[in-house]
Amino acid sequence: MKKLLKALSAGAAALFAAAALSITVCAEDYSFEITDPQPSNGSWGQAFVYYTANDQGHPGNFDATWITPDSEVIVEYTYEGDAAGAPLELIWQTWEGPIERDPDVKKDWNKIAPYEYDDTTAKFSHADIAAAYGTDNFETVYAINVGDTGVKLTVTGVTITNCEIVEAEETEAPSEEETEAETEEETEAEAEEETEAETEEETEAETEEETEAETEEETEAETEEETEAETEAETTPAETSATTNIADNAPKEGGGGTVVVTVIIVVIVLAAAGAGVFLLIKKNKGKYY
Known about the structure:
Layout: H1 2-19, E1 21-32, E2 46-51, E3 72-80, E4 88-93, E5 109-112, E6 116-117, E7 121-125, H2 126-133, E8 143-148, E9 152-170, H3 176-249, H4 255-288
Antiparallel strand pairs: 1-9, 2-8, 3-7, 3-9, 4-5, 4-8, 6-7
């Protein structure tokens, strides 16, 4: 139950953290930071290169999908040399190909001419950019470049107007009291869980000890029973044998007495017969002699 409460508490904390971040969408201008402007080589080189957030290899802060149909790109610059027309061009670059591309547009290096320019500022419209790029889906725009048209160009500022910039803004952080209360609750919950865990471990240990003791007692009882059974098994044949010997050596009732009496009678009869014969011989001795 405590684990469930902790999980719910963690989920609530996550929801609170998510709620602390609100998504704000607003239409505003986005200006790129240029800290050290460098001139181009004067031979159709680039004076400004910016990798967008759409490029996973060189992620920047600007997402090209923020650009709206009302957006336009404004470039501020200086240059040296004589330009036959606009001294610069905007280049919309991709290396995967645009999404939902116009089949008539085959380039991944798409040049856009300004619809308005002077010696210091040029403007590029959303419509011209989408036409040159082949679509108004800018998810795979990985680089925004500004190049020269045969003059040494130095770009000092680039701004894209009317962007729908999506930002995650952190709202007011929870107070120290709320944080401390949450920490105390978490600490108490952890302490209770630890106590329950220790109690469970002790209970399991006691149960194991009791089980082992009962097992030992049962084993001892079984051993004693087996020993007694073996002792009885060994003793019984010996007693039976002794009893049999005694029984065999004991006089037979009636049988022995009968033989003795018979012998006595025979002896008496023989003696009587002998005496009778002796007397008869003696009596008749004088007759025959």
